[in-house]
Amino acid sequence: MTFTDPTLSIVVPVHNEADVIPTLLKRLTLVCRKEKMATELLFVDDGSQDNSVALLLQARRWCPEIRVLQLSRNFGKEAAVTAGLSHAKGDAVILIDADLQDPPELIPQMLAEWRKGADVVLMKRRSRAGESWFKKLTASLFYRLINRISDAPIPVDIGDFRLMSRRTVDALNQLPERNRYLKGMFAWVGMPTVTLEFDRDPRMAGQTKWNYLKLLHLAMEGITSFSTRPLRIALVLGLLAAGAGGFFGLWEVLKTLVVGVSTPGYASMIAIVTFLSGVQLLCVGLLGEYVGRIYMETKQRPVFILAEDSDERIPDFQPTL
Ligand code: UDP
Ligand code: MG
User: Fold this and answer.
1) InterPro entries under this entry (predicted)?
2) Of 48, 91, 244, 287, whose CB count within 10 A is highest?
3) CB count, 10 Å around CB of 32?
4) Which residues sit opposite 106 in a β-bridge?
5) Proximal ligand: closest to the CA of 82
């Protein structure tokens, strides 16, 4: 290894992954050793309650390239990744999940594309083993929806597993928003991109940290962070409903004038009233989503709080890879 080599940062968000960390470290270091680049393995502990942190800190004895950032509590994956990206020093930064769903063995391929000049190397899932058909279906519907309404399309079947060049990471770090919908932010930044395909493995051990409520929240985040088009759709809906209501009223008045007072349909009235109040509530709720986001942004709170940085405590580390 020479010090003129570009450095590589591998950013791994970790939340209760003690079961996979030994294997993860083994596979990651094996790959890094072959690459012969000055590498940092940047683990961001997102408020783990198991002994993930202890395992990582212990591993620093035989693998000093490991750096562990500990957030003060569980802030969520997006915040953990944001923390990692803002501290990564490498000229190339690779983002990878801790659960080995993204095989580290693909890193050399990604680096090869980067050396050829790509700024972003995306890893597209050819298959998604170990995921239910319901998750696959909802994911595909969500991407179709979001790409309809947002301005920078988000590529389908691409997770956070990716390589980014220094300037891409710098550009991302400059985006000031607090609501961090990373998939959308990556797409927004753009840059010359190469896409490679891979087969996504099932989770090696442990449980997925996502549930449908969290995914719904992320979906809402994705839609509202990147488009104000839903507001316009609400407006159009309102216009249509008001127009239809106006015509219906006019029709009723004319009918009364011509045919005389009829016994009006109670059922149809109830149907119209409930439908319209539903539409109204929906639009108010939608507006609320945006107002809520504006509120969160105006608070200007940091995205994450760093409690501990392993590099601060041991300043004289010697890279051995
Ligand atoms: N993760 C995190 N904070 C969280 C939830 C997850 O840092 O609050 C990490 C987790 O440790 C893993 C990655 O994010 O490295 C992906 O999580 P998971 O495998 O649970 O998500 P899935 O692959 O099911 O989408
Ligand atoms: Mg996973």
Assistant:
1) Glyco_trans_2-like, Glycosyltransferase_2, Nucleotide-diphossugar_trans
2) 48
3) 22
4) none
5) 1
